[in-house]
Amino acid sequence: xxxxxxxxxxxxxxxxxxxxxxxxxxxxxxxxxxxxxxxxxxxxxxxxxxxxxxxxxxxxxxxxxxxxxxxxxxxxxxxxxxxxxxxxxxxxxxxxxxxxxxxxxxxxxxxxxxxxxxxxxxxxxxxxxxxxxxxxxxxxxxxxxxxxxxxxxxxxxxxxxxxxxxxxxxxxxxxxxxxxxxxxxxxxxxxxxxxxxxxxxxxxxxxxxxxxxxxxxxxxxxxxxxxxxxxxxxxxxxxxxxxxxxxxxxxxxxxxxxxxxxxxxxxxxxxxxxxxxxxxxxxxxxxxxxxxxxxxxxxxxxxxxxxxxxxxxxxxxxxxxxxxxxxxxxxxxxxxxxxxxxxxxxxxxxxxxxxxxxxxxxxxxxxxxxxxxxxx
Length: 376
Hints:
Layout: E1 2-7, H1 15-29, E2 34-39, E3 56-59, H2 72-97, E4 101-106, E5 121-126, H3 140-157, E6 162-165, H4 168-174, E7 180-182, E8 201-205, H5 214-227, E9 232-236, H6 242-251, E10 258-261, H7 267-272, E11 276-279, H8 288-295, E12 300-303, H9 309-312, E13 319-322, H10 327-339, H11 341-351, H12 354-357, H13 360-375
Parallel strand pairs: 1-2, 1-4, 2-3, 4-5, 5-6, 6-7, 8-9, 8-11, 9-10, 11-12, 12-13
Helix pairs in contact: 5-10
């Protein structure tokens, strides 16, 4: 079978990029399928994660991101121009590759894909939640654009042969759709050893931006540090908020206990050397970081954001969930685990069982069945 994946780029150390790599590796190495990965904004950079030999990597050079930061109207007309180029180049590539299935990672420009009559089946997978356009709470023209895009999404996703979301919670928000299906991301054990939950270290992982909301986590850590000054927080990520977050750390006198670390290709080692994973996000599609850290034996503490925590965490067994935005509650939940070694270790042992529900074999079987079904 020939599968063609479309994604913005593969050069960032993000969850989508890692999920794509895991799926591609499985389909190539376990199934022997022919896989092509198409990007629009690679800018000549190498993939952050190495893809298997034999996978065809094609960048269309559309570069939507070149218009980021421009005034609204310039960005809008620039988008229309780039989308036209994108469609022309993508259509030509389909005629060359002749895939059986085209699988688009959203968000990413794919509005024209269902209308391409090349004979392939079209699949869209959403790695955010239905609400993600609204999460920035922007005003003015950008706010109107967010509302428009959210409304258009509901029309767009119905045009695909299958629309894949990551959680039951998100599926419910989309309502009745004949083509919608839930397939979570797989939990892979990515360390050489499990955490024994003895290190006085908390880990957080993600892009340094609004979505991951590490500003809230730093505020919370100021409260944690008052009671547990011998614990430290390591945040791994990159992004536009790095300077602002570092300033928050410095202003609160937390430089010795909170550190911003560059992304690492060996995040499993960092999980194994920590005792707790904390997530302060405003929203997620499916928090892959949470699943991977738990697979390495870390209990979880996180806000009750949409979507994912209640699909993944068995509360009081392998983690603690706090109402979204409750900074005092998040601090108290972390302190509870920090003070109780036995509770922390017991939850860590239970957290490992996440791989039973989200094993690669189970998840990829769902994907293989989906592709084979729509071709039939």
